[in-house]
């Protein structure tokens, strides 16, 4: 019987499996995908390893305070403490496992990027596995090969479906493999690392939104969440996600040439199908990141998540519209017009009718917004910059949709990566890490610790607690 079964071959799973091996444990890793180390978000990732946009080797107290502030009282202090104390060690662990790291750019969150950022082979980039040979793939391949070399039991094409509970503790997991009968893998402990539930439309509709674009791995369907709930696990921050708004065509399709909507969101307003503003358009991530969360949560949780628009006037289109987007994205003007994405009309009422938004609602919203822009004072929802009023026709709009990379909430853990039950006590033998876990990220503004940092830190900690509990090291 193995000491540990790990569910999932992303960075959380491989960190748990390799750390447990180092501590002398016998480990089985089951992976739904049939492809080498796995078919994960981790291999698709940009692989920029940062801790809340800072270097993971920053002093732990600094990381702790930074993250707690971002979470605004909605994340668990013991989990944040464990992460801030161990994020630097997790990066060192990945380096010891063979990670190639280089500085991608000056910004601190890009100081530790898995290298190379993409495959050097143009044929690979055109293939259905464009991540082959990039830094994330090279690291996971090394961890997978070391695992096999040191006697680990890797089961690709195997899906975990149910936890085995005996005498109040988790003692293994039931798995399914195509063409084989359901099998129980008994073990002293189980680490759940299936990446979260972003690829499960039903769970997404229950917890986050009914309308979204998927940027993450299709295999991350929340199996661990379902299994853990079935045995009484707690959950937290289920509406949190790592994602942003993306531009859509007026019919809601993906544009041929995408660009970032951020600069226009910053200068205009974001409204739902009732013509009402949804949130503070100027309140983005505090750091300059590739993914800017601004208004993504508000659009996702709006009454019309598939019918939300950025609205602005011609003066803004002609000025801010010509600015480049995030990290070199082409300016919206003229790209959105050239692709038929921009909808224009001489008046606000006509614009609303063209885009299928309540006209009276939009007119009232613009009037309130203009009063705020001209006179200041208070506005609901609040607005943290001082925008220009929407005055000069023609008026313009383009459609936006939330795009998700992964879910931030999930199975509640403590600082030792133990899964916490509804009675607020650890469920013996059960651990969670990475996209499966909840407690570190989320809250009103989708507080982000860094997906790689979260996954590698808690994968490592889960192994250390589980192996420490199962056998002295
Ligand atoms: C495009 C993209 C870019 C990103 N860029 C960055 C970045 O630059 N920096 C950063 O910090 N983060 C980034 N992230 C986020 C980061 O990659 C993830 O947070 C992290 O990789 C999650 O790791 P994980 O091991 O928890 O999940 P995953 O890597 O998704 O691994 C989960 C694994 O579990 C398997 N699985 C699922 N269900 C089962 C089951 N029932 N049984 C067995 N196996 C199962 C899946 O097939 C998968 O292989 C990015 C994400 C994406 C999608």
Written overview of the protein:
This protein has 15 helices and 20 strands. Helix 1 packs parallel to helix 15. The longest helix is centred in the N-terminal third of the chain and has 20 residues, at 77-96. Strand 6 and strand 7 (169-177) form a beta hairpin. The radius of gyration is 23 Å and the shape is elongated. Strands 5-2-1-9-19-18 form a six-stranded mixed β-sheet, covered by helices on one side. Strands 10, 12, 13, 14, 15 and 16 form a six-stranded mixed β-sheet that branches. A three-stranded antiparallel β-sheet has the order 6-7-8, covered by helices on one side. It has helices spanning 11-22, 41-44, 60-71, 77-96, 122-126, 135-149, 201-207, 223-230, 262-267, 296-300, 314-318, 332-338, 348-355, 359-375, 451-470; strands at residues 4-7, 27-31, 101-102, 113-114, 153-156, 158-166, 169-177, 183-186, 189-192, 213-214, 235-236, 241-248, 269-271, 308-312, 343-345, 395-407, 410-412, 418-420, 426-432, 437-438. The protein is of the alpha/beta class and 473 residues long. It binds flavin-adenine dinucleotide (FAD). Flavin-adenine dinucleotide binds at residues 7-13, 30-33, 38-42, 44-49, 159-160, 193-195, 215-217, 219-220, 223, 405-406, 434-435, 450-453, 455.
């Amino acid at each position: 019987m193995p000491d540990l079964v790990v569910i999932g071959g992303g960075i959380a799973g491989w960190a748990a499996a390799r750390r447990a091996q180092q501590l002398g444990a016998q480990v089985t890793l089951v992976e739904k995908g049939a492809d080498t180390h796995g078919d994960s978000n981790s291999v698709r990732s940009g692989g920029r390893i940062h801790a809340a946009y800072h270097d993971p080797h920053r002093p732990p107290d600094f990381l702790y305070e930074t993250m707690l502030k971002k979470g605004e009282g909605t994340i668990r202090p013991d989990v944040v403490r464990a992460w801030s104390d161990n994020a630097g060690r997790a990066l060192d662990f990945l380096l010891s496992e063979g990670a190639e790291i280089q500085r991608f750019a000056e910004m601190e969150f890009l100081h530790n990027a898995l290298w190379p950022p993409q495959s050097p082979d143009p044929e690979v980039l055109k293939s259905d596995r464009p991540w082959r040979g990039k830094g994330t793939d090279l690291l996971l391949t090394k961890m997978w090969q070391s695992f096999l070399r040191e006697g680990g039991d890797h089961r690709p094409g195997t899906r975990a479906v149910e936890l085995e509970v005996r005498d109040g503790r988790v003692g293994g997991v039931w798995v399914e493999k195509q063409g084989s009968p359901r099998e129980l893998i008994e073990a002293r402990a189980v680490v759940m690392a299936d990446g979260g539930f972003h690829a499960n439309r039903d769970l997404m509709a229950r917890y986050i939104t009914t309308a979204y674009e998927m940027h993450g791995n299709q295999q991350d369907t929340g199996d661990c969440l379902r299994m853990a709930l079935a045995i009484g696990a707690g959950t937290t921050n289920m509406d949190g996600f790592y994602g942003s708004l993306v531009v859509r065509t007026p019919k809601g399709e993906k544009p041929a040439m995408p660009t970032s909507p951020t600069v226009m969101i910053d200068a205009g307003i974001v409204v739902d199908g009732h013509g009402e503003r949804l949130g503070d358009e100027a309140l983005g991530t505090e750091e300059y990141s590739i993914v800017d969360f601004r208004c993504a949560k508000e659009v996702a949780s709006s009454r019309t998540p598939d019918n939300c628009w950025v609205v602005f006037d011609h003066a803004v289109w002609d000025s801010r519209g010509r600015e480049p987007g995030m990290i070199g994205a082409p300016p919206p003007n003229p790209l959105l017009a050239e692709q038929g994405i921009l909808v224009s009309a001489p008046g606000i009422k006509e614009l609303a009718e063209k885009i299928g938004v309540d006209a009276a609602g939009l007119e009232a919203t613009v009037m309130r917004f203009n009063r705020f822009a001209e006179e200041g004072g208070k506005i609901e929802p609040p607005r943290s910059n001082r925008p220009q009023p929407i005055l000069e026709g023609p008026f313009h709009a383009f459609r936006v949709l939330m795009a998700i990379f992964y879910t931030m909430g999930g199975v509640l853990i403590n600082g030792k990566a133990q899964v916490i039950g509804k009675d607020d006590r650890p469920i013996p033998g059960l651990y969670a890490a990475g996209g499966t876990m909840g407690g570190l990220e989320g809250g009103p503004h989708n507080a982000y610790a860094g997906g790689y940092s979260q996954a590698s830190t808690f994968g490592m900690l889960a192994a250390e607690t589980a192996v420490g509990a199962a056998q002295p090291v």
